[in-house]
Design brief:
It is built from six helices and 13 strands. The chain has a single domain (27-228), classed as Aminohydrolase, N-terminal nucleophile (Ntn) domain (Glutamine Phosphoribosylpyrophosphate, subunit 1, domain 1, 4-Layer Sandwich). Helix content is 28%, strand content 27%. InterPro entries: Ntn_hydrolases_N, Proteasome_alpha, Proteasome_beta4, Proteasome_bsu_CS, Proteasome_sua/b, Proteasome_suB-type.
Length: 247
């Protein structure tokens, strides 16, 4: 028996394949970290880095975790990358089915968010969850929309949302500094401040980010870029500075 194969794939000696059992994803393999989204004056803006961690190792550095969904929505995901790809396949089928009606209407961000809520909750009830936290934002008919849903179907709407460590490190900054009338330039500056905090404090974050925006005019996703960082803190140069006592 080949010990490196999945036992369910091993063919018995009589040549008859045993019926496959039910399999579940017990834990994620390749994951992405925080996604941050917020409303601003003209629409919705979203940011995430492009890192993919294999366990505690940042193995992939070009994983795009923000995608355009239909005409009116942006989707960002943290968590298992392959499950995110599965969700994108679901959404491709949904958008295609909607377009086939050819009735002049198209799914808005609220409808897509409701669909994702049902998908995540359904998979959770089957004890086969999709290991993701999703941020869904968009603009339709002048109405801005921003919401999130996690792997067990918990969901809400807000003026700013975040997943992963962003919930703990970025949202306090957003609560203090977010305004409804932020210009695009101010919104980018605020997002970059949050991303820099995450870069310093989240071991899964990398200094390679994408920022996406969606307005009535359409969607724009930036090419990956880096932020200027500073690591010359005295504590790194001499960790005993300010320490009391001795070991």
């Amino acid at each position: 028996m080949d010990l490196y194969r999945n036992p369910s794939e091993v063919v018995p000696s009589n040549g008859v394949q045993a019926p496959e059992g039910s399999e579940r994803t017990l834990y994620p393999y390749v994951t992405g970290t925080s996604v941050i989204g917020m409303k601003y004056k003209d629409g919705v803006i979203m940011a995430a880095d492009t890192g993919g961690s294999y366990g505690s190792t940042i193995r992939y550095k070009g994983v795009e975790r923000i995608k355009t969904i239909g005409k009116h929505s942006l989707l960002g995901a943290s968590g298992e990358i392959s499950d995110f790809q599965e969700i994108l396949r679901y959404l491709d089928e949904l958008i295609l089915y909607d377009n086939m009606w050819d009735d002049g209407n198209s799914l808005g961000p609220k409808e897509v968010h409701n669909y994702l809520n049902r998908v995540m909750y359904n998979r959770r009830n089957k004890f086969n969850p999709l290991w993701n936290s999703l941020v869904l934002g968009g603009v339709k008919n002048g109405q801005k929309y921003l919401g999130m849903v996690n792997m067990i179907g918990t969901h809400f709407e807000d003026n700013h949302v975040a997943t992963g460590f962003g919930n703990h490190l970025a949202r306090p900054i957003l609560r203090a500094e977010w305004r409804e009338d932020l210009t695009y330039e101010e919104a980018v500056k605020l997002l970059e401040k949050c991303l820099l905090v995450l870069l310093y404090r989240d071991r899964s974050a990398i200094n390679k980010f994408q920022i996406a925006k969606i307005t009535e005019e359409g969607t724009t996703i930036s090419k990956p870029y880096s932020l200027k960082t500073f690591w010359g803190f005295s504590a790194f140069q001499n960790p005993t500075v300010g320490a009391e006592g001795s070991w």
